[in-house]
């Protein structure tokens, strides 16, 4: 299965500098973490849209060893270390 992430967000009052996306996926005590620099964004009334990967698609893991339930946590942090959004969600990989 191929997939992409698409983020849509608004910046209201001040420039959002050095926004990073942190993703951590955990299964049975083992974890995998990815960091992605999204960039800096000025305030504007229209939403900013960011899609990744920018070129091509990501592919979900295949095979019996990757099947099962995962817990994922995503966090958006700026260059000052301020967390703007953090959330968790379950993932289930099946055949």
Helix and strand element order? EEEEEEEE
Give me the secondary-structure category.
mainly beta
User: Count of DSSP helices?
Assistant: 0
Give the terminus-to-terminus CA distance. Answer: 11 Å
Largest sheet: 4 strands, antiparallel
Beta strand %: over 45%
| Backbone shape | elongated
Q: Over the alpha carbons, how many angstroms does the gyration radius reach?
A: 15 Å
Total strand count, please? 8
What does this structure look like?
The chain is mostly beta strands. Helices cover 0% and strands 62% of the residues. It has no helices and eight strands. It starts with a strand and ends with a strand.
What topology does this entry show?
Layout lengths: L1 E2 L1 E5 L6 E12 L2 E12 L6 E5 L5 E2 L8 E10 L5 E11 L2
Antiparallel strand pairs: 1-6, 2-5, 3-4, 3-7, 7-8
Name its key features:
two-stranded antiparallel sheet; 8 strands; elongated; 4-stranded antiparallel β-sheet; 95 residues; single chain; mainly beta; 62% strand
Short description:
This protein is mainly beta. The protein has no helices and eight strands. The chain has strands spanning 2-3, 5-9, 16-27, 30-41, 48-52, 58-59, 68-77, 83-93.
């Amino acid at each position: 299965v191929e997939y992409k992430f698409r983020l849509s967000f608004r910046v209201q009052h001040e420039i959002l500098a050095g926004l990073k996306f942190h993703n951590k996926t955990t299964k049975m005590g083992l974890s995998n973490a990815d960091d992605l620099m999204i960039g800096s964004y000025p305030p504007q009334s229209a939403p900013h849209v960011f899609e990744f990967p920018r070129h091509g698609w990501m592919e979900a893991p295949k095979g019996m060893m990757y099947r099962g339930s995962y817990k994922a946590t995503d966090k958006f942090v700026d260059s000052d270390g301020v967390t703007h959004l953090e959330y968790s969600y379950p993932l289930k990989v099946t055949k």
